[in-house]
Write a structure and sequence with these properties.
Layout (H helix, E strand, L loop, with lengths): L1 H5 L5 H23 L4 H12 L3 H8 L5 H11 L4 H16 L3 H33 L4 H55 L5 H9 L2
InterPro entries: ExbB/TolQ_transport, MotA_ExbB_proton_chnl
Subcellular location: Cell membrane; Membrane
Main location: membrane
Length: about 210
């Protein structure tokens, strides 16, 4: 297998780098999204807020590493302006969820192009051999063709293997965003119904 890849020429080096980077990002993102789900804890937070147990809700979200709980924590900590607080943190968390995806997108586009470049280089080498040795050395000619085919196949393989998890991660980011928006809205409604919100109390006292 190694000998086969070596026959693909120097273009296999950037393709190998692309594959290593893609695998690293894919594994890291799989681990990230594996621990990203926190719907049960989010439901518990909303229930505690509806019951007026603010401190318990804060303790449940404090120090959380999950985007959803971090956003809810920002809303509780800044409950007088919960919508803006959650929006600000949500933008940052969305960037965290999309981390590495632009690199995967680049690899998906770049790998077939590198494979095509390897194909062109291999064919050029074949034509050069034909020009020098005519048709008396068929093995030398087919070596360039093999180099071209190996590079093409490798480039397409890297792109295809990267494309599937990339689309999965995009779908997960979209789904997590919808979940965050859902629970952020529920938290905002729950905070608005608290009878002892200090901002409402101050407004009532002002006009008393």
């Amino acid at each position: 297998m190694v000998d086969l890849l070596i026959k693909g020429g120097w273009i296999m080096l950037p393709l190998a780098i692309c594959s290593i980077v893609a695998i690293t990002i894919i594994v890291e993102r799989l681990l990230f999204f594996k621990r990203a789900g926190a719907v049960e804890r989010a439901d518990k937070v909303i229930t505690l807020i509806n019951q007026g147990q603010i401190d318990e809700a804060i303790n449940l979200t404090k120090g959380a590493k999950v985007p959803l709980l971090r956003i809810l924590s920002a809303g509780i900590d800044n409950r007088h302006k919960s919508a803006k607080a959650m929006e600000a943190v949500g933008i940052a968390e969305l960037s965290v969820m999309r981390r590495g995806l632009p690199a995967l997108d680049t690899i998906i586009t770049l790998s077939p192009l590198l494979g095509l470049l390897g194909t062109i280089i291999g064919m050029i080498n074949s034509f050069q051999v034909m020009a020098v040795a005519s048709m008396g050395q068929p093995h030398a000619v087919t070596g360039g063709v093999a180099e071209a085919l190996i590079a093409t196949a490798t480039g397409i393989t890297v792109a295809v293997v990267t494309l599937i998890p990339y689309n999965y991660f995009l779908a997960r980011v979209e789904r997590e965003t919808e979940v965050i928006e859902h629970y952020a809205t529920k938290l905002e409604i729950a905070l608005d119904t608290l009878p002892y919100r200090s901002d409402k109390y101050e407004d009532t006292k002002k006009y008393a």
